[in-house]
Every structure is written in C-alpha cells, then in structure tokens.
Amino acid sequence: MNAELIQFRPVVRGDLRTLYVMQQDEAGNQLAGTKTRSWEAFAARWEAVLIDPRVTARAIVVGAEILGAINVIPDESCLWLGYWIDRQYWGRGVASAAVRLMLREVTPRPIFARVATHNPASLRVLKRNGFVEIERQYRAATERFVACEVITLRLV
Predict the structure, then answer these.
(1) What is the CATH number of the domain that holds 78?
(2) What angle separates helix 94-105 from helix 120-128, to the nearest 10 degrees?
(3) How many separate domains does the chain show?
(4) Are strands 65-75 and 56-62 parallel, antiparallel or unpaired?
(5) Is 145 left (phi over 0), alpha (psi -120 to 50) or beta?
C-alpha cells in the first residue's frame, strides 16, 4: 500500500455498514480496548457524529475502497482524535498517513488522543505525528470500553 495514495472524504450514511463491519473485528477491539457494539448503538453514535457540525469525520480511502475512518470530536473544551483502520491494512502506513492528513485539515491545538497501553502500534503512530504522552491511568470498564491502562497524549 502506497500511503501517498490515501485520501479523505466526509463520512456519509452509506459508509456506516462498511465501518460497522470493520469495528466488529475482535483483534481490533482487543487492541483498542473497546467492546463491540450492536448495529443500533453503532448507528446511533454515528448519527450523532454526522449531524454535529463541530465534528470532523473522514473516511480514509484509496479510490472507492474504504480503509477506515478518522475523526476529530470536541468534548467539553478539548478536541479528541480517534481512528479505526481495517485490519487488512495494519502495518502498511495507513494510520500514520491518515493522522498526518487530519492534522493538516484540523489546525486548532491542542488535540488529544487516548490509546490503550497494550497497543504500541497506535502509540507509535501518534508519537510519530508529534503527540506527547501526558498521562497514564487505569480506565474502569464501561459499556463501550474494557478495563485497562490508557495513555493520554497531546499535540500542541
């Protein structure tokens, strides 16, 4: 995969089934420290994302193929970066290229990201793009997340 071919486009409702299938991946959820969601919960969350004008939600694409999604979402007074890459594209530079592109598009700083400590690949992606670790803490289990240690990073 040539990371230079990666492009963005806004996520549209027609993408949701493809993204839902990607986010059902057991290995991806294990690395992210997340729990799979029902279609109803997934679709409801994305509907909220798609109607919020403050959210930057992008499909990561090469041609017509969706490789994943990346978002910057405001939460109180902060911006949070998050992404999900389809497993078949792991280790091919997709996440690094997507984060780099998103940081060019969304320029307000600081931007924060959170990664499970057992996900060194995502930690490397974020650090390569200028994020700096600011905190480690234990996150209790919720309906969406498994209990695990997480690292919060900041880009200024």
Answers:
(1) 3.40.630.30
(2) 40
(3) 1
(4) antiparallel
(5) beta
Pull the structure tokens for residue 62.
Answer: 């090469």
CB atoms within 10 A of CB 98: 28
31-40 confidence digits (pLDDT tens): 999 999 999 9
3-state DSSP call for residue 101?
Answer: helix
* DSSP, res 14: G
Exposure of 125 by Cβ count < 10 A (0-12 exposed, 13-18 middle, 19+ buried)?
buried
Span 47-101, pLDDT tens digits: 999 999 999 999 999 999 999 999 999 998 899 999 999 999 999 999 999 999 9
- What is the domain range of residue 66? 3-155
Residue 12's contacts (CB-CB under 8 Å, 6 or more residues apart) are 50, 59
Q: Is the dihedral of CA 33, 46, 25, 15 positive or negative?
A: negative
Give percent helix, percent strand, percent coil of the chain, each to the nearest 5. 35, 35, 30
**Model's pTM, two decimal places?**
0.94
153 closest CA partner among 140, 135, 139? 135
